[in-house]
Amino acid sequence: LMTDPMKNGNPDQIPDEPANRDLAKPSEKKELSFDEKVEALDRFIHFEPLIREVDYKTLLFCETRRNLSDIEEAMASFPEFKGATRDQFALVTELVDHYGLAFFELDAEGRVVTEADKDGLTENEVDDLVVGFAYETTEVGRAVAERLDPHRRFAELVEAAPEREPLYRALLNLLRVKRTFAEVDSYVRGSEGAMVLAQAGVGGMQPSVFVDKLERAGVLFYDGGWQATEAGIEVLDGVRAAA
């Protein structure tokens, strides 16, 4: 099972992550249980940090069945998608392959095409019948999305080192607006930031350590500068977005 770095004895110890997500693919020869599928999808999503938040938001978006074109448009709107190394269709297909999304073929009326509908049809007739595709988050995907909820990840981050919560919140508050890392570094090394670090018992630690932890928790993102995510603002303000 995946080890959560925030629950390690050392909250600053983060395990290396394989660069190749294919290493996370579940065995095709073995039928996995529900829990094994959840672990496989969770592990797969965590293996590529640049895609992690895009995968998470896609699972949320597809809790209602969506056409492929709608999913592609939504994914392109995610700020984190700018760092994606593959196109939307490839990312969606990966989530299907790892149990997070269910795939449906649609006819011209938007109805799901079943195998029974294809019985007796030629290959060309099947091609004429299927005119679109749709995807919906599976129960496995919903379970992993719940794990990836930034509110939950931030709470786990604080649980691992409660004395650092004021520091995390100070950084999030600073990053309500986009700032360069140099500005973050200047704040942390300034008198106000230094006082917060000292109170957290981490005086002298590099600011990048804390920025990285907040990014991994899904409450910060980088887009030409560091900025709190919508979920990060909700954490600060003690609210959650409407479901």
Beginning-to-end CA distance, first to last residue: 30 Å
The counted number of beta strands is: 5
Structural class: mainly alpha
Shape: elongated
Mean pLDDT: 86
Task: Give a structural overview.
The protein is mostly helical and 243 residues long. It contains 13 helices and 5 strands. The chain has helices spanning 34-46, 49-61, 68-77, 88-97, 115-118, 123-129, 139-147, 150-160, 165-174, 181-189, 191-200, 207-216, 230-237; strands at residues 66-67, 101-106, 132-137, 220-222, 226-228. The strands form 2 sheets. Strands 1-3-2 form a 3-stranded antiparallel β-sheet. Strands 4-5 form a two-stranded antiparallel ribbon. α1 (34-46) crosses α7 and α10 crosses α11. The longest helix has 13 residues, at 34-46. The two termini are 30 Å apart.
Short recap of the structure:
This protein is mostly helical and 243 residues long. 51% of the residues lie in helices and 8% in strands. The protein has 13 helices and five strands.
